[in-house]
């Protein structure tokens, strides 16, 4: 319910801008499977897929070194022509075919000007923007009347604690980009299963993003795994333990 409320407010918040568009959140990791690592506090991790805004496209570029346990990618942001949309009556200038002066006067900055380093989506800039989005959105949620939210510092995700009386929840919101129409994503931070080897997950990035760790997005199969576990859970006999 909390994430559904957040998603509705997110979409409204970015509708007149050229920031990434958050999609419906997906629960991943042990907390949603009903267990937690021994001695550790339960953390509810959700992955929020990001779609490119109008006039933009995301292209994933693999780290060609490929020496790490988990593959890493860069998310290259490309401007695409929107002239046809303008002809259909939508008030959207084309970043490619309108003058810079006209764009500055009539339209908000492109994603390349706000959250990118060079041509690549920057994880830390995106995390800072996402944190601000969550902070502003919280006041518009019905849950804000009964729960108290405290943010936790993190440069690659949005972490916060929710408390209501004696109840307490830890939440970590990761954000990522889907690979095609698959259940494989590149994410802002290594997921739970990868964190054992996550102290160094960047080796060499392609071209423009070379040696810039903040443009590295590790690959994760957490969503595919979650769907697999849900599928298996539906097949086992009632009251069975596996």
UniProtKB/TrEMBL annotation:
Gene name on record? Itpripl1_4
Q: Which GO terms describe its cellular component?
A: membrane
Mind telling me what this protein is named? IPIL1 protein
**Top-level taxon in the UniProt lineage:** Eukaryota
């Amino acid at each position: 319910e909390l994430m559904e409320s957040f998603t509705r407010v997110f979409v409204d918040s970015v509708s007149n801008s050229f920031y990434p568009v958050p999609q419906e959140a997906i629960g991943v990791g042990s907390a949603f499977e009903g267990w937690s690592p021994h001695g550790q506090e339960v953390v509810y991790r959700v992955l929020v897929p990001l779609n490119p805004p109008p006039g933009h496209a995301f292209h994933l570029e693999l780290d060609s070194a490929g020496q790490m346990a988990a593959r890493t990618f860069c998310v290259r942001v490309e401007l695409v022509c929107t002239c046809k949309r303008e002809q259909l009556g939508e008030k959207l200038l084309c970043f490619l075919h309108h003058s810079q002066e006209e764009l500055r006067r009539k339209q908000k900055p492109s994603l390349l000007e706000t959250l990118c380093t060079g041509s690549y989506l920057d994880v830390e800039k995106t995390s800072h923007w996402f944190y601000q989005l969550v902070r502003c959105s919280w006041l518009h949620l019905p849950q804000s009347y009964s729960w108290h939210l405290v943010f936790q510092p993190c440069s690659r995700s949005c972490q916060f604690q929710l408390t209501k009386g004696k109840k307490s929840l830890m939440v970590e919101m990761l954000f990522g980009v889907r690979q095609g129409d698959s259940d494989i994503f590149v994410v802002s931070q290594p997921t739970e299963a990868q964190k054992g080897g996550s102290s160094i997950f960047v080796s060499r990035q392609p071209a423009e993003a070379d040696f810039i760790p903040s443009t590295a997005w590790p690959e994760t199969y957490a969503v595919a795994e979650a769907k697999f576990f849900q599928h298996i859970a539906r097949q086992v006999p009632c009251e069975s333990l596996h």
